[in-house]
Structure formats: C-alpha cells, structure tokens
Specification:
With 167 residues, this protein is of the alpha/beta class. The protein has 1 helix and 19 strands. It has one domain: Hexapeptide repeat proteins (UDP N-Acetylglucosamine Acyltransferase, domain 1), CATH 2.160.10. 16% of the residues lie in helices and 32% in strands. The strands form 4 sheets. It has a 7-stranded mixed beta sheet, with no helix packed on it. A 5-stranded parallel beta sheet has the order 1-4-7-12-15, covered by helices on one side. The protein has a 5-stranded parallel beta sheet with strand order 3-6-9-14-17, with no helix packed on it.
C-alpha cells in the first residue's frame, strides 16, 4: 500500500516537473505552438533554437553558442537521442576552462519534412535539405541535399528520394 502511495506522489511531481519544463522551453525558445516535444526529462536545449510547425523532437540535445543557432523546419520527425550541435571544441585548444578556450560555432538548419532517425549526431554548419531522411545512428558532418537519404558514420548519400506531389 505504501508503495502505491509513493508511486502516486512521484507521478504527481514528475508530471508537474515536465509541465514546468515545457512551459519554460516554450517561453525561452522559438517553438511553434503545434510543435511537440517528446520525453522532456530527456531533452536538453541550450542557445538559439527554433522549431517549426507540426515538427516533433523526441529526445536528445540541441546546443548552440551565442553566435549560432539551430533551426528546424515544419513537419520534421526527429527520433530519440538525437544530438544537434551548432558549437563544438576548437581542436587547437580543446580542453581547459570553458571561458578560456576557443569554440567553433556554425549554425545548423534542418529543412521542412525531414525525418531524422534515432541516435543521430549532427555537427556544426550542417544544412539538411527539405524532404530528406537521415538514417538511425548516423553522424552528419556535411550538408545533406534536398530529397536525399543519408546514413552511416560519417553519413553518406545512399540515394535520392522519388519526389511525389512535391514531397
């Protein structure tokens, strides 16, 4: 009986915490009202972020610096444990205090109608063209043309999609 009570109390506080985090994220970042955020306890956003209408982000990280941004278009489906970084370490001085080491920043843009599989990592400066698919577990180091399917480490073009009715 006591376990059920603790479970109910935990569930109450977890729901309240998730609700507060969603409100904070929607007030802090440019997230369209119709966009959906998946499992919020496993989502970390930091920086300049925009998510378009009807897109969803299941879980993972989106990180930018002060001079970069991440923009996700409309109707994008983003899987679990996806990392999108518009900032990274500069290899010339990769470690040390954060405020004393240089960083490399370059914005990331994901077009409309893109599907990004689970466990994908997108590096700074990447542009994903409209209507593209990035296969699960890919590491995207270079921009992806529109209407393409890429996958692998590093991600490479697998094939172009057949375009039907503009998509």
């Amino acid at each position: 009986m006591i376990n059920k009570i603790f479970a109910l109390v935990f569930e109450f506080f977890e729901k309240a915490s998730i609700s507060q985090k969603e409100k904070k994220y929607r007030n802090t970042f440019h997230i369209c009202e119709s966009a959906r955020l998946g499992y919020l306890p496993h989502i970390v956003f930091k920086g300049n972020i925009e998510i378009g209408a009807y897109s969803y982000f299941n879980s993972g990280q989106i990180i930018t610096g002060r001079n970069s941004y991440v923009k996700i278009g409309e109707w994008c489906a983003i899987g679990y444990n996806v990392n999108i970084h518009a900032i990274t370490h500069d290899p010339s001085k990769a470690t040390g205090p954060e405020n004393e080491r240089p960083a490399i920043e370059s914005s990331v843009v994901i077009g409309d109608h893109c599907w990004i599989g689970s466990n994908v990592f997108i590096l700074p400066g990447v542009i994903v063209g409209d209507n593209s698919i990035i296969g699960a577990n890919a590491v995207v180091t270079k921009s992806v043309p529109a209407n393409s399917i890429v996958g692998g480490v590093p991600a490479k073009l697998i094939k172009y999609k057949q375009v039907i009715d503009g998509q």
